[in-house]
Amino acid sequence: MMFMRKRQMKMSNVFIIGGGPAGIIAAITAAQNGKTVILADRNNILCRKMRITGKGRCNITNSCDMEAFISAVVSNPYFLYSSFYSFTNNDIIALLNKLGVETKEERGGRIFPVSDSAKTVADALINYAHTLGVKFLKNTTIKKILVKDNKAVGVIDNSGNTYYCDSVITACGGASYPLTGSDGNGYKLLKLVGHSIIDIKPSLVPLETIEEWVSEISGLALRNIKVSFYCNGNKKPVYEDFGEMLFAHFGVTGPVVLSASSHLRDFNSKKYTMTIDLKPALDYDALDNRVQRDFAEYVNKNYENALSKLLPKSLIPVIVELSGIDKYKKVNQITKEERQKLVSLLKNLPLTIKGTRPIGEAIITAGGINTDEVNPSTMESRIINNLYIAGEMLDVDAYTGGFNLQIAYSTGYLAGLNA
Fold first, then answer.
1. pLDDT score, position 10
2. Are residues 180 and 59 in the same domain?
3. Is the pLDDT of residue 371 over 50?
4. How many structural domains comprise the chain?
5. Which residues form the domain of 336?
């Protein structure tokens, strides 16, 4: 089929808005089922956000079973049952292997390309879609979805070109990383045709803290620690995790912090705090014994010089100050009460969460298209027929570990299959 010029009409079976992983998988699936497919993206490079995921390595998916996938989803997990079971983690791995992309498994079941390059994954999917006859419209922004008799029948782009089709799939992404094209425009398109939007907020995002000492140790990474997050002073944590974290000039980040951010979403009416257990492998008594052994070894040294075996060098001044013990005090003069206060601090290093970093720094967007308005078995809109919604636009989000990309593939697959 030939593409007509500005303000004229072009027919296709399926028109897809968005060239990220959800849109590409939708395009591949529709084309494999004999449909003519046009995919429009506002960037010159497709899958632009995917190319920076996993620090440029692309955490493709996770090796866990589908029930564990459901458990890793924070918002509306059961909405994803049909999509997860229709296109699984094994399916995306098999597809990539078929396309020549070898994969490997790392800690926590995370699946990466052997190449350690997200470009390998993105290019393989895009090239495959191209071989299936998918037509790409780059540098193209869609400004309106055309609806007739309660059916999606086409779109109009920013240049005034009209494209008529049998079905429209919106896979525009969320509002995080706007420079990659995910700037929230998709929400506006769907709101114009009657969809409601659950308030969007940043998720998998670094956290800002009130305490200023974090800036003094910016760049310090902690491994094998435990974090606990609390709301409004309640003793029961809203989230706990073991793993790695990082101090930054504004606060804290790293895997356990990013996952925790999925549970901290109402900073207007709630106050959040966190504690860091620097030695989770030791209970209080065991750690107290460890500190006593270190103190016995450094019995005639100053307090600040007696913690070198216990803590990273840059963290020692912070712990010394927070413990309230004079750094020049000889270890043999430290009282039992002072030592126990130090042990408590090592088991419960406190921080007060001020808020999240801006949504532009978030890995994904929480909120989005109300899932009550989407058929979970097909991804078709319950408001407009022949309109399908996939990926991060939906009000579903998950922890780090490859789960959010799998949401994109799985929902994209169902949309492409049914469009």
1. 73
2. yes
3. yes
4. 2
5. 206-356
